Amino acid sequence: MPPREVFKAEVMDKVVSSADAAIADVGSGATVMLGGFGLCGIPENLIAALVRRGVTGLHTISNNMGVDGFGMGLMLEAGMIASHIGSYVGENRRLETLVLRGELDLTLVPQGTLAERIRAGGAGIPAFYTPTGLGTIVAEGKETLTIGNRTYVLEEALHADVALIKAWRGDRYGNLVYRKTARNFNPVMATAADLTIVEVEELVEPGVLDPDHIVTPGIYVDRVVVGAAYVKPIESKFIQTGGAA
Amino acid sequence: MSGKERIARRIAREIKDGFYVNLGIGLPTMIAAYVPAGINVVFQSENGMLGVGPPPAEKDADPDLLNAGKQPVTELPGCSFFGSDQSFAMIRGGHMDMSVLGAMQVDEQGDLANWTIPGKMVEGMGGAMDLVAGARRVVVAMEHQTKDGAPKILKACTLPLTGRHVVHDIVTELCWVRVTKEGLLLTEVAEGFDAAAVQTRTEAKLIVSPDLKLMM
Asked: What's the whole-model pTM score?
């Protein structure tokens, strides 16, 4: 074993000064994963920086597409997106119009297949078989395999050039924890890109986060930036309840 | 009580003690309010939560605590949060006792169509295809006919499918129908209707159960 000092010689520091600096080398035509479910847990500050930078021809991968006027909707309105892979885009009217006109290449993927394709991409698994989508248009043109009495569809892994991630708290090493349902696609996407950029609400020193509670270990993270301000709009206000509750 | 409320109340009575259940967006979400007292059920939301509680007062809404319909919810004691990959591992892996979804069309083979109208609607399937592929019991909760009075329970779905041979039960404001190898078995009818009245509103042939009951 080398002496103890070797292990603690330098504190790794992945913190960058601003969202603009964090995405400064994201180029046009890049494949970009964006965390979030609806507007919950989206990297608001990194999206705003990307819109300011004005890159174009992006190939985005995200469960949704924001709404008109917020989140990825801003990227769409700025004409930055050439193609999109997601599971549900029903909240974005502009996207629907662009797709029906044939101006944007949209691939809809079942949400669980999307999550697992990303997981596989980060875990070195090139493809996997799933029961989801068998007998539907999702399975068209794909290889199938029957094991036992069930048939499965072959789905390929997804990987991106850049992942834009939103976490709640993070440290300088890029260890991350998330808050409630704002976790969603963020941790899995953090594993599946060449360059993973994270915005956090609160930056803490290494050792503050309980190692047992860390959801994303820092090995997956390249850059950390503190988000300046959060709007966090709630898309859909209140549940219709039939009776009591 | 509206038709939708009747559907929600009836399905709620089908939830057994100890069940883990995923409720789809819209009508199925209403079911949570009708679970009978004494039944301990854990609701899952596919955006990454088990133990979903009732909606909060408007002032207590937390933008980081939403269900898959993007509506504010609350935490019940014993709830947990997880990422989308784990959420769908538990769905696909057969751990959900029941999944309740809406539908545009269902047919005699148990095929379900609930996500797209080609050339008209670009929304996406969300988690529906995974839920119907993985849940132990798939219940369709829907109004019996379209707003224009066209049947939704068909001989064969005409819209793109969400899943093939996946539906176990169909519940509407008029009836409960079970999908069996022999065909669609009418097991319950709502008050004020009989099997013939349900059949005239249904394209698929219904087999009337010898034990036909009133839907409560």
From this structure: 0.95
